[in-house]
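Tutorial handout. Part one gives the primary structure; part two gives the three-dimensional structure as tokens.
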Amino acid sequence: TVWFKPPWELLYTRSRTPETLKAVQVALVKPVAYLLSYRQVKAPGRYGVEGRKIKAALPPLVGLETALEKLKPILKPDLSEVLDGSLDAVREALPLLLWDILNLLLTDARGAFRIYGTSITLTLPDGRIPQIARQVKANLYLDATSLPKVLATRLDIPVSELLVCKLDQPKGRNLRHIQVSGFGKCGRDRAKSTNDRLQKVHSGILANAAERLPEGKFDWAIADFKGNQFDSQIEHLVNSRGSNAIAGYQVLIQHGLPKINLGAVQDEYDCLRSPDFTFEQYYQQRCDEAFLQGAGRLRADRYPDKDFLIYWIAEEPLPFEAEQVRAADLNPEADLASVRLWRKIDQQVRQALKADGKFPLQESVAIWFDCSAAWISQLAERFAGGWRNFKKVALSLLAPPAPDKTDLTEAEAEVKQAVVTALKRRPAEFVEIFTTIVGAVGWSSWLRIVSRLDRLLRLEILDQILEVFV
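Part two.
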């Protein structure tokens, strides 16, 4: 990938004569500059404007000579003059970078370019590695993290010609991965409040690590994105591959996952010849490579007599097995402010229910925590129907009506069994099923059903509902 910047005058300094310079400027440089600044294709975006989008604005073109002729009708009158001479003369007059862009723009050549503000990236296939591979009898790739089909595509050979050998080593039992979920996004650009919460997660992680490691004392390090306030020994996608800077450290805290720039990987994918895998699969494999490299920075295999822990603060799945821990379980203060408030509300509601069985008014809860009733109502929307419906259901579970003399209908008996069965699910799933059931059978039928549930079962249902509020 090569970076260069406009102005365009810098791109045709190889012109031999003033006449050639003028011809190139009129016939090629200005049209390309015009196309690259075309408003319909130069929409702002995180990954820049793709050359393929610019190419899509042109009619189908094959070959540079034909392309230049067909390009004239869509250009402004002052840009439609024709360069005298052959295509070789055009190639000789233009600098290589601009010629490559024209080749990508006007033909089916492999490669990609994209615009980032006033800068342009040009990505072309690297034929050096396949050329070297074809000149020797055998190639040996050690510690390869690529999938065989991806490596074969990069070498431009059939995957059947690739012999994959794996060393039969015993699995190391001294490295454990712990994924810390529930914190939220821990990406490159973070607010100060997010970093403050990270500090609280650190204290919880270090206390947790002290319980897990027999010595109780250990060296620890942080892996973070470049430019953040933390003094990180490992920087994602900078020195996270092959570094020995923290070899022997027993604890590593990973801030987020080192995701590779999507646009750069897309351009890399466009340079591959006939890949038999999708871009999505290729991107995931490239990201997994970065995750696996990050997991190897402690070099746990070199110290079989020591235990190692890596804490991944991330929500997305990891490409290896990891123990799951919630950030709030490590340190309750690491939760979002709204979640911490609702946790206090939940505790007060439970105490009020336990004291006299009466459910507090929404306004009372708001007064307890010096916030508005509307804020409490917004939090209560986690339960279908909001605060009013939640209060109504809670009171029916705490003080159900006396059962009447008639038996439950067959449908009501099935609903009762469905509620009992749903208790085995996670709280969020249970509440979704529960509210759907109550809404379907109607309130009068629900009162008949709840009157026939024993007290412990009713309290278990209420506890599951309250868990969703937390």
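Part three, for discussion. The longest helix spans residues 192-212. The longest strand covers residues 175-181.
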